[in-house]
UniProtKB/TrEMBL annotation:
A Pfam family per the record: UvrD-helicase
Alphabetized PROSITE patterns for the sequence: UVRD_HELICASE_ATP_BIND (PS51198), UVRD_HELICASE_CTER (PS51217)
GO biological process, one term: recombinational repair
Name this protein carries in UniProt: DNA 3'-5' helicase
Disordered as annotated region, ranges: 652-683
Domain UvrD-like helicase ATP-binding: 6-283
Gene3D superfamilies per record: 1.10.10.160, P-loop containing nucleotide triphosphate hydrolases (3.40.50.300), PCRA, domain 4 (1.10.486.10)
The entry's keywords: ATP-binding, DNA-binding, Helicase, Hydrolase, Isomerase, Nucleotide-binding
Organism this protein belongs to: Parasulfuritortus cantonensis
Domain of life where this protein originates: Bacteria
EC primary class: isomerase
CDD domains with a match to the protein in the record: DEXQc_UvrD, SF1_C_UvrD
Similarity remark: Belongs to the helicase family. UvrD subfamily.
Residue sites binding ATP per the record: 27-34
Amino acid sequence: MPADLLEGLNPDQLAAVTAEGSALVLAGAGSGKTRVLTTRIAWLVQTARVSPMGILAVTFTNKAAKEMLSRLSAMLPINTRGMWVGTFHGLCNRLLRAHHQDAGLPQLFQILDSADQLAAIKRLLKALNVDTDKYEPRKVQAFINMNKEAGLRAGRVEAWDPYTRRLVEFFAEYDAQCNREGVVDFAELLLRAYELLERNALLREHYQTRFRHILVDEFQDTSKLQYAWLKLLAGPEAALFAVGDDDQSIYAFRGADVGNMATFMRDMGIAEPIKLTQNYRSHATILDAANAVIAQNANRLGKDLWTDAGVGEPIRHYQAMDDREEAGFVVEAIRELYREGLAYADVAVLYRANAQSRAIEHALFTAGLPYRVYGGQRFFERAEIKHALAYLRLIANPEDDNAFLRVVNFPARGVGARTLEGLDAAARQGGMSLWQAACAGGGKNKGLAGFVALVEGMRAEARGLGLAETVEIVLARSSLIEHYKTEKEGEGRIENLNELTNAALAFAADADDQGLAAAAPGTTASAATADDPAQAQLIAFLAHAALEAGEHEAGAAADAVQLMTVHAAKGLEFHTVFITGLEEGLFPHENALTEPDGLEEERRLMYVALTRARRRLFLSHAQQRLLHGQPRYGLASRFLEEIPTALVHSLNLHRRPTPPPPRSTADWGGGKAPSQPSRELPHKIGARVSHPRYGEGVVSGYQGQGAEAEIRVAFPKVGDKWFILDYVKLTPC
DNA sequence: AACTCTTTAGTCGCG
DNA sequence: CTAAAGAGTT
C-alpha cells in the first residue's frame, strides 16, 4: 500500500513527502504542491508515524482546505476525523470556542467580518465625537488590523506623534467595545488564539504534545503573527512542514511576510529547502518567459522551472489602440479558439485591476459569449443576507449592538436618527446594550417597541427549533421579503434570501454528517455542551457565514470564459490565458511603485499570471485606456520587455508603429515619460463647452498644475464652477 | 422618515 | 465613469 502511495513521484517530491522532521519545500508553480502535501499526510498516517489526531494542516482558503480533505479521503481508507485541517482563522476559531473561558470570551462569541468591523469602528468614533475627516474610519480600521496582525495590542504600539497616539486610543477603545459586546474580528481571532497558547502553559503543552506534525500551505503568505502561532503550537518537538513559493508572494500589502521563509530555515536549522522545480502544467515557452521575468527580481531564494512537456507554441502579443480594441481582440481570439474546439471554460482573461473587467465584459456580452466574473460580492456579504443574519444574531444574542443597529429600522418602522440618539445616550449612561436600553425605555417610541416585540417573538418561536426553521421564521416575520418586493430589482435579493434557507439546510446536514465536531467550526466540545444545541448550531452557522463568505457561487458549472484579477487567479490553471492591460502604471501598477518592494511584488504578480497558462498565452496592452472616464496613455509594460523576444510573436506586424498619443492629459509614464511640459489647454478661454450635468457654459479660466489643474466654466444657470481637469468631461459645442 | 441630489474616491483582497 | 456615502430637501 505505501508503495502505491509514493508511486509516480519525482525524486524531489519523494524527498519532500518522506522528509523526517521539519522541512521547507520551495514548490514552484505547477510542481505538484498539493499532491505533495496530501501524500505526505497520507504517508505519515500509513507508516504509523502519527495518528490522524496528531496532524494539523493549515491552508489560506477554505477552498484549499476542502480540496485537501477530499483528496485525502480519496487516498486513504481511514477517516480524516480527528485531524485538524482548515484555515488559520477556522482553526483559531475552533481553538477559541473550545477554550473560550481561558481566552476570556463568552461561550457564544460572534465574529465580525470586515464590514461589521468597519461599522463598529464608525459607531465608536461617533460615540467619541471624533472628526471622521481627520480620522477616516477605514484608516482606523487598517491601523488596528495592521497592529493586531503584527501581534501588538494597543498598549504596545509605539506612537511618536499626536496623530498616532490618537489612533492608539481608538484601538484601545475599540477593543474595549468588542470585549463588552463579546465580538471578535478576524485579526482578533488570530491574536487571541496566539495569546491563549502563550499565556496558558497547560493548554500549550497539551496541544504541543498532541500535534506531532504541522503542515502549512502557501507559507510565503503567512504573516509574522501566524508564523509565531505556528511555532508556539509546534513547540520544540513537532515537525513543521512548510510549503511555499517566494516567487508567488503577492500579498505583502495585507501583511504577508516572505521573510518568514528565511526565518523558518534559521529557526529550524534547515540548510537547504527542498526545491520542486519540475513543472507539470505548462509548455517550455511559457516557463521560459516566466523564468526570465522573475529572474529580474533580486530578493529570491532562487529556482528555475523546467518541463519535459515540449516547447509548445509561441506567446502572442497584441498591441491595441485602446481598451475597447483590446477587448475586441480578446473576443475574436476566443471565438477562433472555440471554433478550434476549445471550451470557453478553458479560457481565462486576467487583468490587474477589477475596473478593467468592464470593457472586456462589454465586448463578451455584445458578442454573445458566455462569461463569468470572479470576485465581487460574495453571498454572505450581500446586504439582504447581512440583514437576515442580523436578525439571526439577535436571536442568538439580542445584546449584539452591531446587529441591532443594522436592522432596528430595516425594513423601515419609524425608528429614526433621533430615537437612536436617545437610545444610545441611555445605553451609555446605564452601561448597557442598546437592546437593554430599548427594553427599559420601552413604549416611548412605537417603532422601537414594535422592534423589541418582533425580535422577542422570533426568539420565542425559534426556541428549540432547528437552524433552517429558524431562518424561515426570520424570513417570515422580518418582512424583509415583502420589503424587497416593493423595490425594483429586488427579485435577485429575494432569491438570495430564499437561498439562505438552503444554505442553512446544507450546513445542518453537513454538521450531522460529520458528527458534532468536524464541520461546524464552532461546535467543539464546549459549544456542544451548551444548554441548547439549537443555539449552538445557530452560533456555528453565524461563524460559518463570517468565515466562509464565498462558496455560494451560482452558475459555476456552466461553460463560460473566466474573468478575474491576477490575484484571484493564483492557484488556478487554464489551457489558454489572456493577460491584458500590460501597461506601465497599470501593470506594474503606479501605486505599487511608491512602496519599497512594490516593483518586485508586481513582478511576482506577473510571474503568477504567466504560470497560469498550460498551453497558450496571449499578452496585450492598449495605448490608450479609459480610466475613471478619462483617457490615459500608457507605454508598454516593462514586463513585456523582460520576456525574451524569441518567445513572443507579435500580432501587430501588419500595423504601422502607431504615432505618439495626441495629448497627454495625465503624465504617467512610470518614470519613463519626458519631463512634463506645460500642459496644453484642452479648451480656450471663452470657448463654449457642454457639461453632462450642467449643460452649456463658457470656459472662464484655469488654475493649478499637473493633476490638480482645474478649469473654470461659467454656466448661465448655476454660475461659475471649478472642475478637476483630469476628470471633467467637457465637449466643445 | 424617506427621498433626491451632491460629493467623493477609485490596486490587489483571504478570513 | 460609477458606486456609495453624505448632505439637503420634502
